[in-house]
Specification:
24% strand; 5-stranded mixed β-barrel; 8-stranded mixed β-sheet; alpha+beta; 24 strands
Length: 596
């Protein structure tokens, strides 16, 4: 007999009744029924109920052990009586009568519970992550992660992609975030960077003629953490294709992404491959106030500025006359809502940093609120008719500069949809956001800057760069969005050196700058570069959505906390003086802030 186990804790059934077996695992729970002890023994695979009574030499040993001790149990499989069968447990038809027990490792008193799933302070959970990972939900999420990544790999291989590993130590990249720098011991005063993404390497693979690349790629960005972004590192399904249009990228990747979602969606519906809506960026910002819209929310934002060019409501008339806009967000069937609902929405907008969120109420065709009173019932009726609103629908307004109004309207759309229970939680709604602006205005630096990916191909090519207002140029760039989260981003790449130089000149970089910063790619493009494009899908975000988690730390093995600290391993930590000398580094302590 195997020294530790003949079966896992999920394998035994009525077929093994009467057999002598050996199981190993953790003591999950204990229940003392006065001389009869029940123990739930847990391993990676499941739970088996162990029974010991006064006839068993195992009883005193098990009684003296704490929860989460590791033991090996040898005993006899017995059938449970009908009324004690646990249909929710794979081994619920049997139990094992313990005849002998070997203590493999006794546990100390636990700093946090394992068997119970109640919330617990995050700093304790992260410091004792090895205990946290024993919890059922987190353990299940991690195994879902393993399965999702395996599924992605299989689908990419089936689609004709080859997996390549690109370097981890590389040069700094203009991806928009801070690099993690690694000092060179050999080259004093010089630094490697951890890759923010394998962007340049995957493009160079296309130039090298490999045609279809993918990688489950680790990426490193020194960014502030948030719920949908881990500090430090994350993983993406990175891919690139040669001789493709953006439509071919979409047609290739929709079955992969949709297939993975469908495989793990349970009873939730998933947008069919081939039916992902393709929404231009400008349309998304108007209708949804966001470039990552949640299409499960049926509310549509409308521009109603024309209704307020001449209005008794002076504030809106002044905003529109000054070049601003008025956006309207419907609130259907709110006739039974009290005035407090509308006032609370206005207060929420102010807490979010906006001037306020105007509103109109309507009950049985009667308009209410200051905006309706000043604008007049006839004009309000015209506005409602244009928007297709009914006699009992409310309406919220976001007014101001176009960007500010879009931001407020988008946030209000989300909140109203949630407050009114309009979001369809039973599906994963996927769509492409396309035709992103190639450039944007950098207000801080008072200059034109790249809005998305500097290596993208502008629509119209070099002719557009030479003949158009930069802020009107669109790019062959696209994002894949699911339920309000950006889960992938990509583009058709700029593969022509003269177009690449011109694109960077517009943001203030010279040809010499391009050669210095992106010399490898610039040189490669002069020796025959195929048209190519691709994307990168956020593995962590996809898994978070599929697991129904609200935070990426709930689907990651050993994450950092909100302050980018690894509480388990004690990172970051000071370097030894000897190490600093070898790396030609000296630590400069931050200056203390002046008092008063």
């Amino acid at each position: 007999m195997h020294p530790y186990r003949t079966h896992t804790c999920a394998q035994l059934s009525a077929d093994q009744v009467g057999e002598t077996v050996r199981l190993s695992g953790w003591i999950h729970r204990k229940r003392d029924h006065g001389g009869v002890l029940f123990v739930d023994l847990r391993d990676h695979y499941g739970i088996t109920q162990i029974v010991a009574d006064s006839d068993s030499a195992a009883l005193p040993v098990l009684e003296g052990l704490r929860i989460e001790s590791v033991v090996t149990i040898e005993g006899t499989v017995k059938a449970r009586v009908a009324e004690t069968v646990n249909a929710n447990l794979a081994t619920g038809a049997i139990e094992v009568f313990a005849r002998a027990v070997t203590v493999q490792s006794a546990a100390e008193e636990l700093p946090m519970p394992v068997a119970d799933e109640q919330p617990y302070p995050e700093d304790i959970r992260l410091k004792y992550r090895f205990l946290d990972l024993r919890r059922e939900t987190l353990h299940k999420n991690i195994m879902t992660r393993v399965a999702v990544i395996a599924d992605m790999r299989a689908r990419m291989n089936a689609a004709g992609f080859n997996e390549f590993s690109t370097p981890i130590l590389t040069a700094s990249s203009p991806e928009g975030a801070r690099d993690f720098l690694v000092p060179s011991r050999i080259h004093a005063g010089k630094f490697y960077a951890l890759p923010q993404a394998p962007q340049q390497y995957k493009q160079l693979l296309m130039v090298a003629g490999f045609d279809r690349y993918f990688q489950i790629a680790p990426c490193f960005r020194d960014e502030d953490p948030r719920a949908d972004r881990l500090p430090g590192e994350f993983y993406q399904l990175d891919l690139e294709m040669s001789f493709v249009t953006q439509e071919e990228v979409w047609e290739t990747m929709e079955p992969v992404i949709q297939g993975t979602f469908a495989a793990f969606a349970g009873d939730k519906a998933v947008t069919p491959a081939g039916d992902f809506p393709r929404i231009p960026y400008d349309e998304a910002m108007l209708k949804y106030g966001s470039d990552k819209p949640d299409l499960r929310n049926p509310l549509i934002i409308s521009d109603v500025s024309s209704h307020f060019t001449q209005s008794g409501f002076g504030l809106f008339e002044k905003i529109v006359g000054g070049g601003g806009v008025v956006r309207a967000i419907p609130a259907p069937a709110t006739h039974e809502k009290s005035r407090k609902f509308f006032d609370d929405m206005n207060d929420w907008a102010r807490r979010e940093g906006f001037a306020g969120l105007g509103y109109v109420t309507r009950k049985s065709g009667e308009f209410g609120g200051p905006i309706a009173k000043n604008h007049g019932p006839e004009r309000m009726a015209e506005l409602y008719a244009e928007l297709g609103l009914g006699d009992n629908d409310g309406l919220f307004f976001a007014a101001g500069k176009a960007a500010d109004a879009a931001k407020l309207a988008g946030a209000a759309r989300i909140r109203i949809g949630e407050e009114l229970g309009l979001v369809d939680e039973s599906r994963f709604a996927l769509c492409w956001i396309v035709d992103f602006p190639f450039y944007e205005w950098n207000e801080d630096e008072k200059k034109v800057d790249f809005s998305h990916n500097p290596f993208s191909m502008p629509q119209g090519g070099i002719d557009a760069l030479e003949g158009q207002d930069p802020l009107t140029i669109k790019a062959f760039q696209y994002d894949l969005v699911c339920n309000g989260y950006e889960i992938a981003s990509g583009s058709i790449r700029n593969h022509k050196p003269e177009t690449m130089v011109k694109a960077f000149e517009i943001v203030g970089l010279s040809k010499a700058d391009v050669e210095e910063r992106f010399g490898g790619m610039y040189r490669a493009f002069q020796y025959g570069a195929p048209p190519h494009g691709g994307m990168a899908a956020g593995v962590d975000r996809i898994i978070m959505l599929l697991c129904g988690a609200k935070n990426l730390r709930e689907i990651s093995l050993f994450p950092m906390n909100q302050r980018a600290e690894d509480l388990l391993m004690g990172a970051p930590s000071p370097a030894e003086p000897r190490s600093l000398r070898e790396l030609h580094l000296r630590v400069v302590e931050p200056q203390a802030k002046p008092v008063g």
